């Protein structure tokens, strides 16, 4: 891959989990960003321990050679007034703009069981036709706002939400404007959903605006599915891991991205219990694996 076109980042969720703050509660922000840099990454998404003041955060990151590349945004377009969601969206765009980022990653959280102690497979959100239209119309409007502000809005399909499967993702992309709405492709969430992440990337590559590299441990996944556990329990058990440590075919994923001239960030996002999976060790291993298979 061409390092002028593709940059590598890593998410702080391996050091401190946003949904489960007790996982990595002992790890400091300073330790997290220092270890990211030492492992060889130049980009980061935003974690719950990051300073909220852009000037303060930028100072910490600049001396470590790290840039903010994206931030999660919880949207509730299917259940809240659009104006309320847009106001919060604009606030986040303002913060990201001051950090020099150019991607924002919304995920629709209406009735999501992602952060709830609910079975992830049997209790996932399913939207009515009215909710679906509110979602897609709202995303088109948010995407237009983002584009006007110089951003790429990349929608994050996610376990436990109304846009989880390949079928739901395809419907979502068909019902939104490609001029305003991109896809945040996440290999781990398609794999966890029981889909083929390689086939998903091949199908959606024309809309991919941001990439999360996440692997899945097949034995843990089988246990989670058999017992219909929650997303939180799955993370605690270690269903996710770094590229090359699970069942996802990353060489094929890298090939599809390169063949289609993908330009943007690839971000390792592998939430685990840091007491079981040392985040610095795993970050270094992920970086070595990516270098071996992409040349980056």
From TrEMBL:
Q: What is its EC number?
A: 4.2.1.44
- Outline the extent of the Xylose isomerase-like TIM barrel domain: 37-285
Q: Which GO terms describe its molecular function?
A: manganese ion binding; myo-inosose-2 dehydratase activity
| InterPro entries, per the entry | IolE, IolE/MocC, IolE/XylAMocC-like, Xyl_isomerase-like_sf, Xyl_isomerase-like_TIM-brl
Q: This protein's superkingdom?
A: Bacteria
Entry keywords, A to Z: Cobalt, Lyase, Manganese
A GO BP annotation? inositol catabolic process
Q: Do you know which HAMAP family this protein is assigned to?
A: IolE
Name of the protein this chain belongs to: Myo-inosose-2 dehydratase
Protein's organism: Sediminispirochaeta smaragdinae (strain DSM 11293 / JCM 15392 / SEBR 4228)
